[in-house]
TrEMBL record:
Protein name according to UniProt: Probable phosphoketolase
EC number(s) stated in the UniProt entry for this protein: 4.1.2.-
Domain Xylulose 5-phosphate/Fructose 6-phosphate phosphoketolase C-terminal: 589-790
One Pfam family named in its UniProt record: XFP
Assigned keywords, A-Z: Lyase, Thiamine pyrophosphate
Entries under PROSITE patterns matching the protein: PHOSPHOKETOLASE_1, PHOSPHOKETOLASE_2
SUPFAM superfamilies cross-referenced by the UniProt entry: Thiamin diphosphate-binding fold (THDP-binding)
């Protein structure tokens, strides 16, 4: 048997305040139902007829009245306390609610003048919702005040905390739906309380909205014992206040009191921390709101219960256009909100409603933090050239490229201590970026034990073993106008595939929304990559995130494969300065050969693709073969193949083309970074064989180049899902991207050397056999492989 919940006691909310709150809530509910059902007769000034009903009914009603209820109360608190607050709505399908709220507040009409605050504008507001040429049913980018679409569930809290970091005056009210609360991403994000510093960060007020059902099933947290839920939330670090019921007047009083108590406690926590200079982790307040699913909707339809059941999750009844009984239910439902009291003769919100929201940018639908672009300040970036690795001759010396980058990031952090953070799932040091800890500690506001290193509440390196939470924090940080970098093992970035999808779609959509200003790019650094995961084995070997990324619209995605430290520095500087992209940088963390000095690296990265003249023998003549490469290990193996080939065939004319910006391979008609046909043919010829060594799955190169004149002569080597725990070079051999197989590919495709190539082919096959025997006897690569460096063409 469930015990009685600990509920908020009745507040001193006056009768007049209660009437005003309820009127605003009824108006928002009326507008929400109208958006789902109506395309005419918006104020019901004549009987409802079939032509007034949309032919296709789309949208989600069940969560919307609860969202509207919370919004109304937040507006009261903002006005009373002059709060700087934004609203994150986890149940994204409750889109009618925030659209209605922003129309009532006037923001919607300010941004979209054709959706005016009158009868004609209301009709347009209704018709456009989930309608061709209109707006989506989610809390989409088109919705003023939104930084969180919620098309996929699970990220409301992580987005909210990302927005709150380094925003000391901001309160983020984050509604978590009880369906959303079942996701793994959401479950982990409750731990964000251990990463908040009340001295310098804003606050998140979670509101767990339990209405009992998902699409067709009950929800877990709504069906567990009240004490069990209380223990769970307290275990996450919260002090929950429960508001439960269905009677509107009682619920208004109880929720107003709960909200005041929660906001008072947030104010106390922040005041104490900022006055004392201490950052002891408190139990942060939160609210649990239990209300009926589809609250205030029809109690029954066709003899079946609707309000308070799963049947109200989406459209409570779907045939109002053709069924007289359904249409009668709809009309009675709409009239139950008493629209004649809520809207004046012109259809504008009545005076009582117009005065019930904050003014100017205190409106949640107009808060600048919900449109982060106008708030962005450029990073103060040091000159990346100052971190250059000296390169006397190409390929003669080694360095850990990401460790070099770490020094650059350290000084970026030092110069941007309130606008730049780094995010990693416990992999910052593993990825050789530990130098940044010279500038700041890791963010940590839980227990710190003797022996722990570089943990502090005011640290700025965000590490939690949850890729979802890192991504969500970073997205919230970017969407509110700050900058960041997410480093991750390449194989496990797939965990956030769907989150990347949502963010890329957000960027793509906002490119067409004039009032949404560009935000800093989402920058991924993927290291511990497929070719140097030989020690961790098959489970850690997957370069497929690139394939996933390039499926998105060309105007928002970029992929970079710098082959050494200086090109990595140049690429990182470019990406951190950019806006409105998702940038994927793949770079190895292990010691690797360095090829370009900084001047050459800048030129090469600026072009994104180019001939490495020092590595080829075709200057002034037509090449016999083109060797293309993209990625650090493929580049090394390509250069080693060049040396082998020239030992056997000194007169072979080889051209080496290295690719840093992967999208340069695509046609310029498909991607803004793409090469024209003329430029591509100048590099890769129109008829010569091309052996291309690529970091990832080889078929992606074929996808990117399929329209090219010489595509039929492209032969691509890459990762083909062969891997295990083995030596670094054996990983290349298993996938036939090694120097011996690349050299053999050239022999097999250059007709003029084939008659004299028999001994060379035998030598290459013998070297592969020798390699296999050696690693099984010694557990490491042949010395000639492990110690190889580029000798240079001139030495031959």
């Amino acid at each position: 048997m469930q015990t009685a919940p600990r509920s908020a006691a009745p507040t001193t909310l006056s009768d007049a305040e209660l009437r005003d709150l309820d009127a605003w809530w009824r108006a928002a509910n009326y507008l929400s139902v109208g958006q789902i059902y109506l395309m005419g007769n918006p104020l019901l000034r004549k009987p409802l007829r079939p032509e007034h009903i949309k032919p296709r009914l789309l949208g989600h009603w069940g969560t919307t009245p609860g969202l509207n209820f919370v919004y109304a109360h937040l507006n009261r608190a903002i006005t009373a306390r002059d709060l700087n607050m934004i609203y994150v709505m986890g149940p994204g399908h409750g889109g009618p609610g925030p659209v209605a709220a922003s129309w009532l507040e006037g923001t919607y009409s300010d941004i979209y003048p054709d959706v005016s605050r009158d009868e004609a504008g209301m009709e347009r507001l209704f018709t456009q919702f989930s309608f061709p040429g209109g707006i989506p049913s989610h809390v989409a980018p088109e919705t003023p005040g939104s930084i969180h679409e919620g098309g996929e569930l699970g990220y409301a809290l992580s987005h909210a905390y990302g927005a709150a970091f380094d925003n000391p005056d901001l309160v983020v009210a984050a509604v978590v739906g009880d369906g959303e609360a079942e996701t793994g991403a959401l479950a982990t994000s409750w731990h964000s309380t251990k990463f908040v510093d009340p001295r310098r960060d804003g606050a998140v007020l979670p509101i767990l909205h339990l209405n009992g059902y998902k699409i067709a099933n009950p929800t877990v947290l709504a069906r567990i014992d009240h004490d069990e839920l209380d223990w769970l939330l307290r275990g996450y670090g919260h002090d929950p206040i429960v508001v439960e019921g269905a009677d509107p007047d009682d619920m208004h009083r109880r929720f107003a009191d709960a909200l005041d108590r929660a906001l008072n406690r947030i104010s106390e926590i922040q005041h104490q921390a900022r006055e004392s200079g201490r950052s002891d982790r408190p139990a942060w307040p939160m609210i649990v709101l239990r209300s009926p699913k589809g609250w205030t909707g029809p109690a029954q339809v066709d003899g079946l219960p609707v309000e308070g059941t799963w049947r109200s999750h989406q459209v409570p009844f779907a045939n109002a256009r053709n069924d007289d009984d359904h249409r009668d239910i709809l009309e009675k439902w709409l009239r139950s909100y008493r629209p004649e009291e809520l809207f004046d003769e012109d259809g504008a919100p009545a005076a009582q409603i117009r005065d019930l929201h904050p003014r100017g940018t205190r409106r949640m639908s107009a808060n600048p933090h919900a449109n982060g672009g106008p708030l962005v300040r450029d990073l103060a970036l040091p000159d990346f050239r100052d971190y250059a690795v000296p390169v006397g001759s190409p390929g003669s010396e080694s360095a850990e490229s990401t460790r070099v980058l770490g020094a650059f990031l350290r000084d970026i952090m030092r110069g941007n201590m309130s606008t730049f953070r780094m995010f990693a799932p416990d992999e910052n040091n593993s990825n050789r970026l530990g130098t940044v800890l010279e500038a700041t500690a890791r963010t940590w506001n839980a227990e710190i034990l003797p022996g722990d290193e570089r943990l502090a509440p005011d640290g700025r390196v965000m590490e939690i073993l949850s890729e979802h939470t890192c991504q969500g924090w970073l997205e919230g940080y970017l969407l509110t106008g700050r900058h960041g970098l997410f480093s991750c093992y390449e194989a496990f970035i797939h965990i956030v595939d769907s989150m990347f999808n949502q963010h890329a779609k957000w960027l793509r959509t906002t490119n067409d929304i004039q009032w949404r200003r560009p935000i800093p790019s989402l920058n991924y650094l993927l290291t511990s990559h497929v070719w140097r995961q030989d020690h961790n084995g098959f489970s850690h070997q997957d370069p497929g995130f690139i394939d996933h990324v390039v499926n998105k619209k060309a105007d928002v995605i970029r992929v970079y494969l710098p082959p050494d430290a200086n090109t990595l520095l140049s690429v990182a500087d470019h990406c951190l300065r950019s806006r409105q992209y998702v940038n994927v940088i793949v770079a190895g963390k292990q010691p690797e050969l360095q090829y370009l000095d900084m001047d050459d690296a800048i030129v090469h990265c600026t072009k994104g693709i180019g001939i490495w003249e020092w590595a080829g023998t075709d200057r002034g003549v037509e090449p016999d073969v083109v060797l293309g490469c993209a990625g650090d290990v493929p580049t090394m193996e390509t250069l080693a193949a060049v040396e082998i080939l020239l030992e056997w065939f000194p007169d072979l004319k080889i051209r080496v083309v290295n690719v840093v910006d992967l999208m340069r391979l695509q046609d310029d008609r498909e991607h803004p970074h793409g090469l024209s046909g003329t430029d591509f043919d100048a590099l890769f010829t129109t008829d010569k064989p091309v052996i291309f060594a690529y970091h990832g799955y080889p078929w992606l190169i074929h996808r990117l180049t399929y329209r090219r004149t010489n595509h039929d002569n492209f032969h691509v080597r890459g990762y083909k899902e062969e891997g295990t725990t083995t030596t670094p070079f054996d990983m290349c051999v298993m996938n036939q991207i090694d120097r011996f197989n690349l050299a053999k590919d050239v022999i097999d495709r250059v007709a003029r050397i084939q008659p004299v190539a028999a001994h060379a082919r035998e030598h290459l096959k013998n070297k592969l056999i020798e390699h296999g025997q050696y690693i099984r006897a010694h557990g490491e690569d042949l010395p000639e492989i492990a110690d190889w460096h580029w000798q240079g063409i001139d030495s031959r």
